[in-house]
Amino acid sequence: MTTPRLFIVIPCYNEQEVLPITAPMFLDKLKSLTQAGKISEDSRVLFVNDGSKDRTWEIISDLARQDEHYIGISQSRNRGHQNAVLAGLMEAKDKCDITISIDCDGQDDINAMDAMVDAYLDGCQVVYGVRSSRETDTFFKRATAQGFYKFLAMMGAEVVYNHADYRLISSRVLQEFANFKEVNLFLRGLIPLVGFKSTSVSYSRAERLAGESHYPLKKMIALAVDGITSLSVKPLRLITGFGVFVAFVSFIGVLWAVITALLGKSVAGWASMTCIVCFVSGVQLICLGIIGEYIGKIYMETKRRPRYIISERTWEQD
């Protein structure tokens, strides 16, 4: 096997505080892998500016002028983390042999890249970075994150436990992944669907080196909903089953009401009737909400809008 060309794909959104700290770290890792003979000298660090409103793109452009190993692309507007990662992967798939996607904040251990590249050289086409511990997370975030992975598994989604978007993917896999045209992206659930030989590498997650997290609870919940509705129809089957159960209970209630009326033991009461009506109404609204979520996904998919638009590339600048 010839020495592979690596592109480290790094999505960036308003990262002007942390980028000057982590960019040299990524470059040092690239050079150390090159010196070890694991990757070729023409490997690159590819930054993806996701429509940042601060100086992120300016910093990326300056880095590209200072060292040829830095390159960058900028989206025409902010389109979200998953679309930014996808843009970088699709940009890199025809230019390299392997990609490693990683966040810009320095929380993911870049030294795990050595083990990822070793696994690729041993024949794996996909290598997942899996967090061995979440000690740096708050109790709430740790509990909700772990519950999120377990819930996804219960819903029938094929995901790697405690894996986010730190992974190695070969260009061969990316060529096949390019055929997946979903607008509603959940990469950590879609990549396993492509197949090919894969493995995992464990690492410890550190605290963010600078700046603030761009994934508050609201975005985490939205990502969870996207993951479930994009990868599984089990929620629809669950509400169907629940609907059958409620109908069965209601049928028994009707029989009870008829029998008590015939026996002359019925007592007029609004409390029980109100409870039943409220319960059934609540169930109906929840079911309609779940169905509506799927219909909304279908609506967005049928539009077939572009998932990303690249407005600038550092190597095309004057």
Summarize this structure as a short list of keywords or feature phrases.
318 residues; alpha/beta; Spore Coat Polysaccharide Biosynthesis Protein SpsA, Chain A; 50% helix; elongated
Summarize the structure.
By secondary structure, the chain is α/β, with parallel strands linked by helices. It has helices spanning 19-35, 56-66, 81-92, 112-121, 139-154, 171-177, 187-194, 217-231, 234-262, 270-303, and strands spanning 6-12, 44-49, 70-75, 98-101, 126-133, 163-170, 198-204, 310-313. It has an 8-stranded mixed beta sheet, with helices on both faces.
Outline:
elongated
Structural class: alpha/beta
> What's the CATH C level?
Alpha Beta
Round the mean pLDDT to the nearest integer and report it.
Answer: 80
Distance between the termini: 37 Å
> Under CATH, the topology is which?
Spore Coat Polysaccharide Biosynthesis Protein SpsA, Chain A
Estimate what percentage of residues fall within beta strands.
Answer: 15-25%
- Largest sheet strand order: 7-5-6-4-1-2-3-8
CATH architecture verdict = Alpha-Beta Complex
Total E-strand runs:
8
What low-confidence regions span 5 or more consecutive residues with pLDDT below 50? none
Helix content: 40-55%
The tally of domains stands at: 1
Order of helices and strands: EHEHEHEHEHEHHEHHHE
How would you describe this structure to a colleague?
- This protein has 318 residues and is α/β, with parallel strands linked by helices.
- It has one domain: Spore Coat Polysaccharide Biosynthesis Protein SpsA, Chain A.
- Helix content is 50%, strand content 16%.
- It contains ten helices and eight strands.
- It has helices at residues 19-35, 56-66, 81-92, 112-121, 139-154, 171-177, 187-194, 217-231, 234-262, 270-303; strands spanning 6-12, 44-49, 70-75, 98-101, 126-133, 163-170, 198-204, 310-313.
- β1, α1 (19-35) and β2 (44-49) form a beta-alpha-beta unit.
- It is elongated, with a radius of gyration of 25 Å.
- The protein starts with 5 loop residues before the first strand and ends in a 5-residue tail after the last strand.
- The model has no long low-confidence stretch (mean pLDDT 80).
